[in-house]
Structure formats: structure tokens, C-alpha cells
């Protein structure tokens, strides 16, 4: 029973990762792990679009992560905007959003 539930959970996570990778430039419920430009001094923004705008204003920024109000964890403060100089394989992380600096599909959240 436990093994079956574990396999189902793993499959669901893999499906979410595949779906996230298929988005052109915007990710929802995903963390983009990468070197963070503002690691020790993160910005707070009201929306994902504001976070993207900050990325566009920062020369070395190519991608960004934003912590939405739907985030229920305790690791990141809500509304935190992380500016990234690169990205690697997206990780499923409920309540986080991210994308590239020039994405046009960023919702006004």
C-alpha cells in the first residue's frame, strides 16, 4: 500500500516538472534554483510582474523567483523577489513563481 502511494506521488511530481518545463518562460508552483544576485538583500514586490520588472532593471538578471501569498511554508517570506543570473532544472515548490526576464506571459498576481 505504502509503496503504491509513494509511486503515485513520484509520478505526480514528475508530471508537474514536465508540465513546468513545457511552459515557454513562466513557471507557477516552481522554484528555479540558480545563483541569486540579491541573496543577502532580497527585494519585496507586490506582484510577480513587479519582480520581473526588477529583473529587467538589473543588468545581470536573466531569471527571477517570486514568493506568492499562496506560499504556506516558513523558508521564504511572502512577496520576496529573488533575482537570478541563471537557472537549472525547475523544482516543484507550491506558492513560488518564476520566469525569464522578458517573458510576456506573467500574470498580474
UniProtKB/TrEMBL annotation:
Keyword Oxidoreductase carried by entry: no
Domain of life: Eukaryota
InterPro entries with a match to the protein in the record: Pan_app
Gene3D superfamilies, alphabetized: Hepatocyte Growth Factor
Signal peptide (residue range): 1-20
Limits of the Apple domain: 44-83
Protein name per Swiss-Prot or TrEMBL: Apple domain-containing protein
Pfam families referenced in this protein's UniProt entry, alphabetically: PAN_4
Alphabetic keyword roster: Signal
Amino acid at each position: 500500500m505504502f509503496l503504491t502511494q509513494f509511486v503515485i506521488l513520484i509520478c505526480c511530481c514528475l508530471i508537474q516538472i514536465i508540465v513546468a518545463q513545457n511552459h515557454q518562460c513562466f513557471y507557477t508552483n516552481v522554484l528555479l534554483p540558480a545563483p541569486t544576485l540579491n541573496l543577502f538583500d532580497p527585494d519585496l514586490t507586490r506582484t510577480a510582474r513587479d519582480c520581473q520588472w526588477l529583473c529587467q532593471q538589473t543588468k545581470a538578471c536573466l531569471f527571477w523567483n517570486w514568493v506568492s501569498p499562496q506560499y504556506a511554508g516558513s523558508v521564504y517570506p511572502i512577496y520576496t523577489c529573488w533575482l537570478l543570473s541563471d537557472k537549472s532544472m525547475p523544482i516543484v515548490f507550491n506558492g513560488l513563481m518564476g520566469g525569464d526576464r522578458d517573458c510576456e506571459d506573467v500574470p498580474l498576481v
